[in-house]
Amino acid sequence: MDRESLLRGLSVETESRMLLVVLDGLGGLPGEGGETELEVAHTPNMDRLARRSALGLTYPVSYGITPGSGPAHLALFGYDPLRYEIGRGVLENLGLDVELQKGDVAIRGNFCTVEERKGQLVVMDRRAGRIPTEKNRELCVRLQEAIGEIQDVEVLFTPGMEHRFALRLRGEGLCGCIADTDPQHEGVEPYPPVATCQEGERTVQVVEELLTRVREVLSKEERANFVLLRGFSEVPHIPSMEELFKLKAGAIATYPMYRGLARLVGMEVLSIGGMELEQEVETLERHWDKYTFFYFHVKKTDSYGEDGNFPAKVGVIEEFDEMLPRILALKPDVLVITGDHSTPALLKGHSWHPNPFLLSSPYVRRMPHQAFSERACAEGCLGRFPAMEALPLMMAHALKLRKFGA
Fold it and tell me: Can you tell me the mean pLDDT for 82-99?
């Protein structure tokens, strides 16, 4: 019997409620003062909670492996990230409510700034200065009007937030096995689209023409004058959380990719009505009686980590801590606070470091932890464990798993 079959067979439906809070990119590295962002942050509410909770550290994929947001979240949702590999393009499109069907190629795009030097385009800013979302919408409308079809392939541009957008290709003979055109660095040329399998050659031709026409449409823009594409992918089959774990799940997330992840595993993505943390908490309060599992996502911890903005990341952690009493007032049977991966401001990107993990339940073995921090979690009773075991741990503490064997 494999792990998935085991959990499917042991899961039971109950009225107990579980809440998974993901402070994206929570884990950090010591700054100039010798402490991480979480350790510097003034978090009296999380620290108080830690003293009556179980702590540990999680690895999203494996030791030394730096995860993307997709596999890191799938692991927290209880899925083996090595078994279910999901492309960023699929997640971005689903998160923006784009309908996908078998045979579609889904892509995530960034508006970017390029300069022409000696006949070559050079990437000056991969995010086009994080253009306003309103400008993004305007550019996507222009591109859609100018490039609705290429070589009998339907092209759909969907604006995301700031510099991000989703792209869907629909037509005969397409394949998602195309390498990213985003070089992940400034000062270099965008990569040309390259097929990673023989079936991708037609798609390469379509994308090459697409990029040429995009450059023509955007050439007079000061900042967003080109695009970088990544996460070429097709829709996989993945069982829902209700199917596997008998959970009625609701998702509270503001950014498209995370909404897409939630939708992919069968969660109902809730309408928030804004981008602020307080609005997310209000949404949780409003829907609390309707679901047995909630996924609550906070993005800015990761964004500021990627920007290398140590103080701003500290500020987001402190803002969440101020909201925590309202969450605790809902009396979740099980509450987990963790990160999907670490994003230290020192590295300005995702890292391989394990994530702080707090589990609150009436059934934990408490230890006198002084604070919620990487160091306290390293000494916690849960030890270090794969992130995909977080959900079974939550279910066990919510009494949602039967005994295995006689």
Answer: 85
How far apart, in whole angstroms, are the C-alpha atoms of residue 354 and residue 340? Answer: 9
One-letter amino acid at 25 equals: G
For the cut 90, the answer to whether the pLDDT of residue 238 exceeds it is: no
Read off the amino acid at residue 185.
Answer: H
Question: Cα angle at 204 between 188 and 142, to 5 degrees?
Answer: 75
**CA separation, residue 193 to residues 20, 90, 118, 145, 226 (Å):** 38, 18, 21, 23, 14
Beta carbons of 334 and 306 less than 8 angstroms apart = no
Across 13-37, average pLDDT: 96
pLDDT of residue 229: 96
CB 166, CB 93: distance < 8 Å: yes
Domain ranges of the chain: 3-84+239-397, 93-233
Question: 315: which 2 tokens?
Answer: 């500020």
Amino acid residing at 275: M
HSE, CB side, 13 Å, CA atoms: give it for residue 228.
25
What number of other Cβ atoms are within 10 A of residue 191's Cβ?
A: 16
Between CA 38 and CA 348 the distance in angstroms is 16
Other C-beta atoms within 10 Å of 2: how many? 9
Report the distance separating Cα 265 and Cα 281, nearest Å.
22
Tokens read off for 301: 């911890």
The pLDDT value recorded for residue 92 is 86
Is residue 301 within 8 Å of residue 316, measured between CB atoms? yes
Count of positions (residues) in the chain: 406
- Was domain 3-84+239-397 assigned CATH 3.10.450.10? no
In angstroms, rounded to a whole number, what is the distance separating the alpha carbons of residues 93 and 102? Answer: 14
Report how far residue 393's alpha carbon sits from residue 405's, in angstroms, rounded to the nearest whole number.
18
At position 264, the amino acid (one-letter code) is L
DSSP one-letter code for 354: P
Rounded to whole angstroms, how far apart are CA atoms 211 and 138? Answer: 18
Q: Which residues contact 371 (CB under 8 A, 6 or more apart)?
A: 39, 43, 46, 47, 50
- How far apart are the C-alpha atoms of 378 and 373, rounded to whole Å? 9
